[in-house]
Write a structure and sequence with these properties.
The protein has one helix and 21 strands. By secondary structure, the protein is mainly beta. Strands 3, 4, 5, 7, 8, 9, 10, 14, 19 and 20 form a ten-stranded mixed beta sheet that branches. A hairpin with a 2-residue loop joins β15 and β16. The radius of gyration is 17 Å and the shape is globular.
């Protein structure tokens, strides 16, 4: 059975998709070196209107689904999504899969795609990260709106693993073997769209429309899990929240 998780950013829509000039690419890579970083989830209190609603939480930086189990449960997380076109005001967002970052916030093994709109120009970055280290860009893969992307992380131990991004539309695949002194708990598996941090502050959150993770699953020593039982995370900023289907 194909598992699906849909994340909808409910903002005003426009339709702009432009190629990014090389000068803008250089500037973006320079900003990345200054410190692009995903962060553990920042939980918010549940709105009074949703009190009593089970399996839903609120966050200022994450939207999506998180499976929460005891330590040692998850060593593999994967999902596939179609790259969206951010529109409207300048902003960025990131779609990724990862291990840990919710109930275990000391380390996160993750990989995904950033999508950015700036002065009407849209750009994309493929990256990997072992939090609390900063994210690093993959080279050797191109990303465009409408591409179908498969993202996968595998923990071979609590301090080593791999991140893989496959562009199923172009046939390109990139991977990175990672090690860290910060051990995973292997207690959380997640499929997330995030308002990430860059240069020590949150970036303006882009209007990305809809991101739907399909063929989503997680696994570990105890078997395979689908996101159907995941805790749903709604991102809430300035009194507005994402919707989920």
């Amino acid at each position: 059975m194909v598992s699906k998780l849909t994340i909808l950013c409910n903002l005003l829509l426009a339709s702009v998709a432009l190629a990014i000039p090389s000068s803008r690419l250089e500037a973006r890579l320079a900003r990345r070196r200054e410190g692009r970083q995903s962060l553990p989830i920042n939980h918010l209190e549940q709105p009074a209107s949703d009190v009593g609603v089970s399996n839903v939480e609120y966050s200022s930086n994450w939207a999506g689904g998180v499976l929460i189990e005891p330590s040692g449960t998850f060593t593999y997380v994967t999902g596939t999504f179609t790259v969206p076109t951010p529109t409207g005001s300048d902003g960025s967002a990131s779609a990724w899969v990862g291990i840990d970052g919710d109930t275990c916030g000391t380390a996160i093994l993750q990989t995904g795609i950033d999508f950015t709109i700036s002065n009407g120009a849209v750009s994309y970055d493929a990256w990997y990260e072992w939090y609390p280290a900063f994210a690093y860009d993959f080279s050797g893969i191109s990303i465009a709106a409408g591409n179908v992307i498969k993202v996968t992380v595998t923990a071979s131990s609590t301090k080593s693993g791999t991140a893989v991004i496959q562009n199923l539309s172009t046939g390109q695949t990139v991977s990175k073997a990672l090690t860290s002194s910060h051990a995973l708990c292997e207690a959380n598996a997640e499929w997330i769209v995030e308002d990430f941090e860059q240069g020590g502050r949150m970036v303006p959150f882009a209007n990305f429309g809809t991101v739907q993770f399909t063929s989503a699953s997680a696994s570990g020593p105890g078997g395979t899990y689908s996101p159907s039982g995941a805790t749903i995370i709604d991102i809430e900023q300035n009194g507005q929240s994402s919707d989920r289907l």
